């Protein structure tokens, strides 16, 4: 709690130690565990950075992390990797020295007044997002990650809440893993917005998965990550993180939302809850206006059966979007979208944000009422994640 606000961080991240994959993978897959050719443990390197500064990253073997002999990243320079790792160690030196273990995670959250944090991967954002990967290996990696995260969260299960990884590579395995993680008591899964094997999120092969999410009351959080080896907005024409990051997060989320609406997923599953993470919310009024006034008004006949109401009505009924505290026009966005669909995520401990975003959002009292801020910080994520107070 901070300034009398109860706070749910709807989008925090863990930092997976590289040696955990071999430990948690099932025996038949251990020989294919992700590895760093330099032989350095990622946690040891992070501790060196926290202690000695960015020079400890030269050379940086983690930049070339591989699985089945292939680098897991796309178009990420060593300079960008070094900068990102250095900023994490610089902003959170105590956590870096502890290899971002559960104790350090809890310490950082409590220091910021966070009552509950929902945890997403770091390495997994890329590792699970390789289009050419063997589906069986991809499913095994997601199971290993979910088992590791379950143990990670057990350090403080009231504060640390797992968001399960789900592999889009095998639709049948998706349903099996969903049922398995439901036994953990988890309330959400995360998916990439990008096409996998040419399938977008409204592909008929995923229909059983949406039905099970709805039946089990498990929310779906869509989370992008730049430099993945999947088809990604901007990656076909830009080579810098500047260009790729600017495109990937908002544009992939816009297209993911469109897939859920245009493809009829939200029409067929009215109890399904979907969140679009880490792209801000400034794009949302324009996108809903365009879908309502240009596409639905003129072309609803083309998707007859998939939509029985305006796209904005599906959004308000079932969807959530995370905001950035320093976005302009938040008051106007709330007037257009409403107060019930915005949530807050800190993105801890990634490089995108400097300073304490929890303090930043509490500091919005000069722009937003306390009632609205409390809805964003607590009431709305409670509904998204299906938490009973």
Give the CA-CA distance, first to last residue.
15 Å
How would you write the strand order of the largest sheet? 6-7-8-9-10-11
In the CATH hierarchy, the architecture is Alpha-Beta Barrel
Number of strands: 11
Please state roughly what percent of the residues sit in beta strands, choosing from under 5%, 5-15%, 15-25%, 25-35%, 35-45% or over 45%: 5-15%
CATH secondary-structure class: Alpha Beta
Question: How many domains comprise the coordinates?
Answer: 1
CATH superfamily: Metal-dependent hydrolases
Class by SSE composition = alpha/beta
Whole-number mean pLDDT: 91
* Computed Rg: 20 Å
CATH topology heading: TIM Barrel
Low-confidence stretches: none
**Biggest beta sheet summary:** 6 strands, parallel
If helices are DSSP runs of H or I spanning 4 or more residues, what is the number of helices? 16
Shape: globular
Helix fraction, binned, reads 40-55%
What is the ordering of alpha helices and beta strands? EHHEEHHHEHHEEHEHEHHEHHEHEHH
Describe the structure using short key phrases.
globular; 3-stranded parallel sheet; single chain; 389 residues; TIM Barrel; 16 helices; 6-stranded parallel sheet
Give a description of the structure.
The protein is 44% helix and 11% strand. By secondary structure, the protein is of the alpha/beta class. The protein has a single domain, classed as Metal-dependent hydrolases (TIM Barrel, Alpha-Beta Barrel), CATH 3.20.20. The protein starts with 7 loop residues before the first strand and ends with a helix.
């Amino acid at each position: 709690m901070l300034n009398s606000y109860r706070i749910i961080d709807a989008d925090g991240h863990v930092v997976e130690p590289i040696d955990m994959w071999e430990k948690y993978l099932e025996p038949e897959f251990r020989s294919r565990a992700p590895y760093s050719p330099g032989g350095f443990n990622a946690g040891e390197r992070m501790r060196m950075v926290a202690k000695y500064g960015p020079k400890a990253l030269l050379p940086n073997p983690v930049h070339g992390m591989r699985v089945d002999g292939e680098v897991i990243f796309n178009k990420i320079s060593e300079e960008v990797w070094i900068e990102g790792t250095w900023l994490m160690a610089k902003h959170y030196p105590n956590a870096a020295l502890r290899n971002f273990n559960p104790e350090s995670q809890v310490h950082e959250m409590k220091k910021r007044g966070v009552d509950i944090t929902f945890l997403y991967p770091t390495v997994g954002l890329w590792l699970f997002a390789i289009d050419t990967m063997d589906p069986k290996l991809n499913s095994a990696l997601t199971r290993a990650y979910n088992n590791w995260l379950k143990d990670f969260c057990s350090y403080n299960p009231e504060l640390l809440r797992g968001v399960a990884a789900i592999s889009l590579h095998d639709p049948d395995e998706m349903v099996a893993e969903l049922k398995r993680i439901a036994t953990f008591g988890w309330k959400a899964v995360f998916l990439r917005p990008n096409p996998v094997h040419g399938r977008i999120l409204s592909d008929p092969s995923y229909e059983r998965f949406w039905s099970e999410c709805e039946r089990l009351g498990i929310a779906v959080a869509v989370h992008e990550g730049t430099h993945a080896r999947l088809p990604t907005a901007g990656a076909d024409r830009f080579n810098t993180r500047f260009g790729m990051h600017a495109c990937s997060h908002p544009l992939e989320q816009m297209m993911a939302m469109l897939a859920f609406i245009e493809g009829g997923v939200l029409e067929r599953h009215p109890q399904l809850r979907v969140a679009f993470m880490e792209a801000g919310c400034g794009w949302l009024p324009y996108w809903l206006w365009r879908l309502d006034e240009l596409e639905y008004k003129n072309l609803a006949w083309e998707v007859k059966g998939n939509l029985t109401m305006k796209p904005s009505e599906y959004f308000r009924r079932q969807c959530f979007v995370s905001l950035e505290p320093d976005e302009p026009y938040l008051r106007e966005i709330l007037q257009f979208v409403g107060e019930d669909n915005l949530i807050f995520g800190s993105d801890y401990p990634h490089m995108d944000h400097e300073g304490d975003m929890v303090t930043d959002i509490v500091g919005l009292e000069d722009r937003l009422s306390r009632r609205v801020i409390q809805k964003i910080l607590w009431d709305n994520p409670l509904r998204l994640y299906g938490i009973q107070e």
